[in-house]
Amino acid sequence: MMTEETYGISSICELVNRSAAQIRWWEQQGFIPIITDRISAGKRAYRRYSATDLEMIRTFVGYLDQGLVVLNM
After folding, report:
1. Of all helices (H) and strands (E), which one includes residue 47?
2. Where on the phi/psi map is residue 67: left (φ > 0), alpha (ψ -120 to 50), or beta?
3. How far apart are CA 52 and CA 58, in angstroms?
4. DSSP count for the chain of H helices, then E strands
5. CB-based contacts of 23: which residues, under 8 Å, 6+ apart?
6. How far apart are CA 39 and CA 19, in angstroms?
7. Is 8 helix (H, G, I), strand (E, B) or coil?
8. Exposed / middle / buried, residue 47 (Cβ in 10 Å: 0-12, 13-18, 19+)
9. What's the CA gap between 61 and 21, in Å, rounded?
């Protein structure tokens, strides 16, 4: 059985050319869904993004780059 490839936040940041802080802020503000898929490592849990999550973030970044979304940070 094949499992879907997932990405850590650092990979997502590289792929969309944005910082982890920006992506986390977008989640907190509700601009993108909060990623609930996480893996545990000791006492910490790390976000895991699916290919669908990556596409949604790329779409959002595209809207930002085109000026279709304005954020007051």
Report:
1. strand 44-47
2. left
3. 10
4. 3, 2
5. 9, 12, 13, 16, 32, 57
6. 20
7. coil
8. buried
9. 14
Amino acid at 4: E
Residues 18-70: pLDDT tens digits? Answer: 999 999 999 998 888 887 777 777 787 778 899 999 999 999 999 999 988 77
* Rounded distance between C-alpha atoms, residue 20 and residue 67, angstroms: 21
For 12, counting Cβ atoms within 10 Å of its Cβ (0-12 exposed, 13-18 middle, 19+ buried), the class is buried
- 66's tokens: 């085109």
What are the structure tokens assigned to 22, written together? 């920006």
Burial of 73 by CB count in 10 Å (0-12 exposed, 13-18 middle, 19+ buried)? exposed
Burial track 22-35 (b if 16+ CB lie within 10 A, e otherwise): ebeebeeeeebeeb
Task: Please state the pTM of the whole predicted model.
Answer: 0.79
